[in-house]
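so i finally got all the pieces together for this one. its two components total, 553 residues if u count the protein bits. some of the lines might not be protein, just check the labels. i wanna see the whole assembly predicted at once instead of chain by chain like last time, that was a mess tbh
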Amino acid sequence: MDIKNLKSEFPIFKQKINGKPLVYLDSANSSQKPKTVIDRLSNFYETEFSNVGRSVHTLAVKATNRFEATRDMLKKYVNAQHREEIIFTKGATESINLVASSYGEKYIKKGDEILITELEHHSNYVPWHFLRKNKGAVIKFAPINKNGEVEIDEIKKLITDKTKIIAITHISNVTGAIMPIKKIVDMAKEKNIPVLVDGTQGAPHMHIDMQDLGCDFYVISCHKMYGPNGLGVLYAKKKWLDDLPPYQGGGGMIDEVKKDNITFADAPTKFEAGTMQTAEVVAFAEAINFIEKLGIKNIATHENEVLEYGFEKLKKNNSINIIGSPKNRGSVLCFTIKGIHPHDIATILDDEGVAIRAGHHCCQILHDKLGIAATARASIGVYNTKEDIDILCKAIDNCKKVFQI
Amino acid sequence: MELKELYQEIILDHGKNPRNKGRCTGYNHDAQAHNPLCGDKVHVYLKLDSEKKIIDISFEGEGCAISLASASILTDTLKGKDLFFTKKVSEDFLSMVKNKTKITLNSLTEDQITTITSLSGVQAFPMRVKCATMVWHTFLSALDKKNN
């Protein structure tokens, strides 16, 4: 595979969109899937499907083995210490809800503080809001600076004796700021405060190493890293696995069920209630294979080249305002064009086959702070090239033509 | 072709220079709405007489060219009109955008019909239909909602 020419690995690029080749710049929203992942899904359903972890027949045993093999693969991929630290969920959102619910139930009481930042996606704010509403917890927001990044000192300033958890994004899906996770974790450790990292935008683009980062929880969205939809991962450090109560109840997660008492399975099963996404987990192994064949560091280098090229090109355009200028930027370019609403930009770009997202990107707190209702966002995936950026820029010129400015 | 139909001259004009923007003095009915998907907001203000005839009408809001143009065209068309007229035009408009029907009200001028019909281009863009319809729904709920 040639990292500079990967579109042929992704069947979606065979089609034309509005008569033009597809320029997909919406990977921060969801990435496209390589053929190997798609084939694995259908092939698993055709020849190997069975539910996992329950029956003893041949198919069930094989399916269970395949399912658990992905867990082993992920343990290695994120360098977790133990395989049971990898919990499958329906997405990054559910992963955060799991922690907010289980950790919150046991450790958060009235007046306790949850420390997040103004950069957070709604999925790393709303689950904590439930604890504010139901338990009287307090949510504190570490503010952004003028570059659209959160300085570590701002987080430090907000830590008190009541801070019970710090929940922060790895990469902002709006300003692109890459947070210094390791430093934040080290600081939190001194005060014995657990840290949850929303790695939704981090995991697809960067080398991640749980033992090196040292965080307590790390959240992954599989559909943003070339894997199937409806699947997420929660990495939870071993010390929490026995300690935290289960999240949802149902089949699979129990040890023994009596009329007067129920005991639960060991982790990770304890946190995986009901029938899991069998085929999705199995096919996600192919997404990891795809990433590993290319090498995550090579992916990062390639994506950064495209991103940098895009940043410089958009910067030269006087009518474009780029949102955020963090020292370390990852994978996204949010912008506005004077006199054209982001929604209109997105519609006109779509006419040229260019897919971007417009809106507040599930970050209303951040947009309120920036004083803008909506932005247009071009986000980079491994298949993007500098030519894609050239087409984006031409399409942006067309916006101005349509709006006669 | 379709893009040109969406961003017609009339829409661009109303989008760039929306009429009746602000809060009209003496309003006695109002309603607001927002689209949680994109953050567009609209607030409609009405000054109605006892028969719900529109003495004055205005709107505040932020949004795309389509939503601003739609709000501007709505306020421009309905100012000074009685309840029968305003309800009928609203129904006709919503039906035009959703079901591709024509505006049927006889008492509209040809100019007004051309202006309202310019928004029918959204039919080809299902994700943008709400941009055009939100202000009309908000207007209808303002008609029923007395301001305290």
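The first strand of chain A starts at residue 16 and ends at 17.
The radius of gyration of chain A is 22 Å.
anyway lmk what u think
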